[in-house]
Every structure is written in structure tokens, then in C-alpha cells.
Amino acid sequence: MINIGVLALQGAVREHVKALEASDVKVIPVKRVEQLEELDGLVFPGGESTTMRRLINKYDFYEPLKEFAAKNKPIFGTCAGAILMAKELVGNVEPHIAVMDIKVERNAFGRQRESFEAILPVKGIGDDIDAVFIRAPIIQEVGSRVEVLAEFDGEIVVAKEGPFLACSFHPELTEDNRMHQYFVEMVRSCVVPA
Fold first, then answer.
1. Are residues 30 and 39 in contact, defined by beta-carbon separation less than 8 angstroms?
2. Which Pfam families match (predicted)?
């Protein structure tokens, strides 16, 4: 059985757990650093990136999360989770976990009242992915090893680099679990058979 964690410090944790459970994996809400040891993959949920970073620091997750990524264990970041993953943030803000060669702009689609839903083609997943954008970031720039999987209005909203997947929208807020299934397959491909 594959073990996938959802960082459970803040954000849409329960919704990610439910979406992942549809893929027949063991899902673990991660509240303690030692839980990272038992995981094959990890989700950084949407929420508020600066609050999440403050909690990551408070509960001593920063170095263990960097080590988790350094082992090339898959990580899926949605909305604020994508911000945590970026090596560069617009506005000279210091990056957080910094595992993906992407430059991200926070709240690029506007504030809460500018939230919207769209149907997007996402490479390798489907032509009709239901995407919910809430105070969503955009991926402004990507490094040479980063694959762009989806755009909206010419802006990058899904990107992948090796075992890392970043998404501007909230796939966990819909009934469409294909983004999570895609991540589960990424995790499966990284797990060495015993």
C-alpha cells in the first residue's frame, strides 16, 4: 500500500484526503515531523502560504520537508502549496521550501471576490479538468527542466519537474479526482518494489 501524506497544518486538508482516498492509497494527515518517514508522497494543500510557513517553522517542519524533497519523494502543491514549492517568488519575497525551479506570483488572479471556475486541458490528464481558482497564484517563469502541463489565458497554472507537481487551482474542491490520480501514479512510479 502506498502512503501519501497531506501536510495538515492549515488549509484544505480534509478535501485532499477525500480526493486521494478515491485512488486506493493510505492517506495520512501529517501533523508531526516523524510522520514524514512513513510517506511515499506528500501534498501541500491550498490555504495561506505565509501562515503555512509560520506553522512549518513553529513545528520544526522546515528542514525535514527540505530533506523529504531532497530524497526525490513526490510532492504535489496546490495554490498556496505551489507557492511553498517555488524557488522564486515575485516581489523579492524570500522563498519557502524552494524545491521547484519556478517563479510564482501570489494572488495573481485577484482577491477572494475574483474567484472563478474554469474547464482546462491539462497535458497527460484530460481536456476537461474542473479548476477552481481562489486567490490563485500564477507560475510566471519555469526552468529548463520544468514541463508546463496547463495554461489559463496564457498564464501557466500547472507545472511538473521530476517528482514535483505544482498547481495554481484547487482540484480538491471538485468531484474530479484526476489531478490526484495523476499524482498517485507519480508516487507509484517512484516507489521501488520490495
1. yes
2. SNO (PF01174)
* Residue 152, helix vs strand vs coil: strand
> What are the residues whose beta carbons fall under 8 Å from the beta carbon of 107, sequence distance 6 or more?
135, 136, 137
Give this prediction's pTM: 0.95
Q: Annotated catalytic, 79?
A: yes
Q: Exactly one of 79, 96, 161, 180 is catalytic; which is it? A: 79
98 Rama class: left (phi>0) / alpha (psi -120 to 50) / beta: left
pLDDT bracket for residue 59 (50, 70, 90): very high
Residue 94 has pLDDT above 90, yes or no: no
Q: Whole domain around residue 139: which residue ranges?
A: 3-190
The question of whether 96 is a catalytic residue gets the answer no
**Whole-number pLDDT of residue 6:** 98
Alpha carbon distances (Å) from 179 to 60, 139, 149: 29, 17, 11
Residue 133: give its domain's CATH number: 3.40.50.880
